[in-house]
Amino acid sequence: MTDTGRPEINMTCAEFQERLPELFETQKDLSAEEHLKTCENCAALVRDLEYIAQQAKLLLPIHDPSPTVWDNIRTAIRSEPGKESPGRSSAPSAGR
Ligand SMILES: [Zn+2]
User: Fold this and answer.
1) Contact of 20 with 46, CB cutoff 8 Å
2) Which of 45, 52, 86, 88 gives 20 to 30 Å between its CA and that of 15?
3) SS3 breakdown of the chain: % helix, strand, coil, rounded to 5?
């Protein structure tokens, strides 16, 4: 008589979140998941993950950064704010 609900019918949060990476990979429609309809917790989690996934997609096109990009980053890291001369924030080498 101590029968708890079956996983297929009553998925727990842990079980659902365990399946999340899989669900994202298969690009399944998560809004169709029964658990999300009943669990606001996991629904919020999925929204967060979807947002992060979107941001990651925006970054993806930069998988082949040119050496110039890294050069700029290195320069930005090295140059200390105090040493910069005021009024000269734009790159001086623009006009050759
Ligand atoms: Zn849940």
Assistant:
1) yes
2) 52
3) 65, 0, 35
Distance 35 CA to ligand 1 centre (A): 6
Question: Cα 73 to the chain's mean position, in Å?
Answer: 22
Measure 16 CA to ligand 1 centroid, in angstroms: 7
**Position with higher pLDDT, 77 vs 8:** 77
Cβ atoms within 10 A of the Cβ of 5, count?
Answer: 9
pLDDT number for residue 7: 44
Ligand 1 geometric centre to CA of 77 (Å): 43
What is the whole-number distance in angstroms between the Cα of residue 57 and the centre of ligand 1? Answer: 26
All structural domains of the chain with their residue ranges: 13-63
